[in-house]
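Late entry, written up from scratch paper. The run itself happened at the end of the previous shift, but nothing got recorded in the book at the time, so transcribing now.
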Amino acid sequence: MSFYHLAVFFFMSALATYPTIVGRRDNAAGLLERILPAQGVLGLVGMLWGLAVGYLFLASSYQLGAISTMAIGVEIVLGTILSYKFIMKYFLKEESAYGRLEALSVVESPLGIVGMVLAALYLMDKI
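Output as recorded:
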């Protein structure tokens, strides 16, 4: 995992915890609407980058450590959740998509916290 990959993963994890932190404010809906495009784009980039790195390591004989493996898994799932919210808002207009979003939103903040911890652990491991 390169430094740029780690930075994308950390910011993606921080953006995943943003709705929980801001959700307690009065103007939370407006703040979340402004951050949604950044969440979606960063989620899509993170998901694709995690899939590419995971595929490259699976295709090669290089062994990943436990922190890297968990970080890539969390990155793929978190990127899927963040990009799904973006795709649902701008491209899907189905009512059934909102039920799936509610189910995914429950896991978003805990995964964001786990992602930030994994990014910090990975950085401490490499220093």
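The chain has one domain: 3-126.
(Scratch paper discarded after transcription.)
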